[in-house]
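Check my protein:
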Amino acid sequence: MGYVAVSGGEQAIAASLDLLEARRLEGGALSCALIRDALPELVEQVQSEGSLWAPDEAAVAVKQARGSVEEAVFLMRAWRSTLERLYVSRVIDTSEMRVDRRISAAFKDIAGGQVLGATRDYSHRLIDFDLVDETAADVRERLRQINEDLADEADHSRAADDAETLARMPRVLDHLRSLDMVRSWPTDDAEPVDVTKTPLSFPAPRSAVLQALSRGLTQAVVAIGYAAIRGFGLSHPTVGELRRGDLAVTIDAPGGAGERDDAYYLGSIPATEVESLIVCDEVDERGQHRSALDVGYGLVMGADESKAIAMSVLDHSLRADDVRFPTQDQEFVLYHIDGVEATGFISHLKLPHYVTFQSKLDSAIRSMAEKGGDADA
């Protein structure tokens, strides 16, 4: 049943939806728990772009959308808009991230050391066809072997009492800041703009810019960030520090004085943070030019490091005064990285445009007729 022709407006739409559901059911029963556990990066992307950390619900959205990220994100945002906001969390200090991966491309030796963690950066990009016949027993045995190897390596390389040190690592860029090598910016304690409630307006404050970048369509953020690096912008970064881990989320105790020690711990969310270094020229108080280091900042939910790096590039680009490049234009970047907005507009082109197209067609026919009459004259 690849195609069924049905006439009539509502009847045709109902049949179309039935066909879509039939295609989903033809794939067999796939548990949401399996989607959540076996495809974590897909589920993380849906949560990040949907502005809601809810792994189980994101897995349902992925299942309903048959793997379409854009559709799943739309479902997540629509569901999030129906939820009541009961609390506002305390400000999260990312320096207290419980780190499981932390590297620097700028310095080889950093306090606490480079922690490679789980990454495919150093893997060969070859398809492993052994996965085709992988069984549940194979998975259990392979996991047992890997855990044994990792335990042996941990015993040789680092003492168990260093676990807290790993979880509380100093920032790599603090050393540069102490040397006044990093461009400083005035502290902005203004109430952040919530882009999920307030439409974007330009010029947008940095809080809105960072939110829009963080929840933007991953591939769009990476593509435009790449364009800024390649020459369609002035931001070529060196990753000063990339850290990945868990951030604790807390709220003030009801009726409390807002003290940190009295806060309630709700849980933690995985996040990736990047501080990129970009060489720039600045003028000091004496009017003299000097080279300095500016910092681009990226913070995304989940483990998407490419998006976090690209976000740091665009953060720097959008703070530039020079708007010769589209990657430094807030409206160009922020409007076009929103996956729901972009997908919605492109998708609406499939809907009937009979009247508007007929008007354009009539205008084109009249124009051709007029040109033909002129030629005859």
Notes: Residues 193 and 208 are 6 Å apart (CA to CA). The radius of gyration is 26 Å. The first helix runs from residue 9 to 26. Confidence is low (pLDDT under 50) at residues 1-6.
